[in-house]
Amino acid sequence: MSGDPTPGAPRTAYRPEGLDDAFSDGGAQRTPDAQGTDSALPAIGALGWLRWAWRQLTSMRVALLLLVLLAVAAVPGTMFPQRPQDPAGVAAYVAEHPSTGPWLDRLGFFDVYASVWFSAVYLLLFVSLVGCIVPRVRVHAAALRGRPPRTPRRFGRFPAQGAGTSDAAPQVVAERAAAVLRRRRIGVPAFRVDVHDEGAGTWSVSAERGYLRETGNLVFHLALLGLLVAVATGQMLHYRGQAIVVQGTGFANVQASYDTFERGTAFDPADLVPFTMRLDEFEARFDPETLQSRDFTAHVTVTEPGQEPEQRTVKVNHPTVAGGAKVYLQGNGYAPAVTVRDAAGEVAFSGPVPFLPRDEVYTSKGVIKVPDVSGDQPQIGLDGFLLPTAVEPAPGLWRSVDPQPEDPLLVLSVWKGNLGLDTGVPQNVYRLDESRMEQAVDEAGDAVTLYVRPGETVELPDGLGTLTFDALPRFVALDLRHDPSLAWVLTFALLAVAGLMASLFAPRRRLWVRATPGAPDEGPGTAATVVSAAGLARGDDVGLQPELDRVLAEVLEASMAPSTASDVHDDTTGPGTTVPDTTGPGTTAPDTPQEGTT
């Protein structure tokens, strides 16, 4: 191959022309050391690699990268059903996707927030923030105890400058400047001030403020760290459950009373506070013209351990608190109370059955399952609708025209067979499994439909028994949530916003004032002290020059004799003030921005 060295020929190091520098030997070959081997850098070692990894992890760019990665890792939790909230949805998804579903389940996509990879990113972000904050807190604490920087020798290159003259002694001018800078103004914190005797009669003052900027930055990061801890604690110690309570019945705060219940990994259901809640009455108001809902109020009686029963109300967006949990009114509807007797005349089912509203006039759908029948009779399933105010616009066509129960009607189809409740597979109580059942038909082969009003009793087809529509109570859907970290999450969120605002808007400024003895007196009106000032800010700060002008004007006003003030009085300033000198070298007029400043 072209370019390969000739076998046996000595190897030479090639260095392109022009690359020689102070660290090269002009292109000469590297010389071996005393043992005849080339010198090499020392190995980093395991400890060196650990230090390098820690520096990378605690850097700001890695912390930001982990924060973005955490947000990306949370996305699958919104795309796929989660097992703690919707186990039936997870089972349905796996059944519908036999190839990808099991793999997604193994990788934790159906329980994202408890997965190994999400927890790893969460913990790495926590460690990164701790490692980033602790050194900065030490540095900031040392800066708070330190003194302002000494006055620079020259002011000519600072973005904000000013000058003036005074007949007071330099020490008096410096002390007056220190007093002005220490004085706190409304909404503006005072400066930290240090007075220096520079010798030869010259006195100077150095002042600094704006430590709130770094304090706000640290508060923001500490609040973010607190949010991570609070959210993690809430996920471990929270519980949430939903329960349907029918008017006239009660609810006990035990896990078995919930229709759905989810909890954190560190929460024990035995720790539930055993309070009870009874739904005494439910009021619903609708607009008479548009039929839009206007108000829902649940009147309940709450009995907590060791206390007397208490009457309370639960409204939409106005929950009540019981047993440390907030109780929200999430929904409502009708629960027709029916009694079903089997062919032997025995009561096979009796009680209210919630029907779920489907539209604004509360057309509600529900299922009545009757598994406990006598003998070898097939089980009964009734599937249909409840119409609160039923009308028949066409023969055989019924619909509801009002959400209030003015003329309620149950419209049901009848099924017989095996309900499938003994298979061990959980079922939706609002859906009828028709795979093992047969729909009842009349002699013409048409499906049998029952129309039942309150107080009526109808015969079931095929001699299955009877159905009685007893009453029409209402039900409410309650959502109970307990999360001990909510107050902490709110507190840390507010602290994060406050810290961020302070870090963005609190200006970091340094001001210096120097009072130098002037030339020997040459006559009346000759200034005895030359006062110069300069300011520096971190970043662009349009308020730096105005603040410097204010401080300089107050210093000169207080330290100037009346005769001198009358000689230099100008119409644009207040009585007893001087116009900052704009003719001195390295100074600019207060209202004239210097080149390179805003």
TrEMBL record:
Parts of the chain that traverse the membrane: 62-80, 112-137, 218-237, 486-506
Superkingdom in the source lineage: Bacteria
Keywords: Cytochrome c-type biogenesis, Membrane, Transmembrane, Transmembrane helix
Record-annotated ResB-like domain positions: 60-549
Residue ranges, annotated region (Disordered): 1-37, 561-598
Membrane topology listed for this record: Multi-pass membrane protein
InterPro entries from the UniProt entry: Cyt_c_bgen_Ccs1/CcsB/ResB, ResB-like_domain
Compartments it resides in: Membrane
This protein's record includes keyword Transmembrane helix: yes
UniProt main location, coarse: membrane
Residue spans of biased composition, Low complexity class: 573-598
Listed PANTHER family: CYTOCHROME C BIOGENESIS PROTEIN CCS1, CHLOROPLASTIC (PTHR31566)
Protein name listed in UniProt: Cytochrome c biogenesis protein ResB
Lineage: Bacteria, Bacillati, Actinomycetota, Actinomycetes, Micrococcales
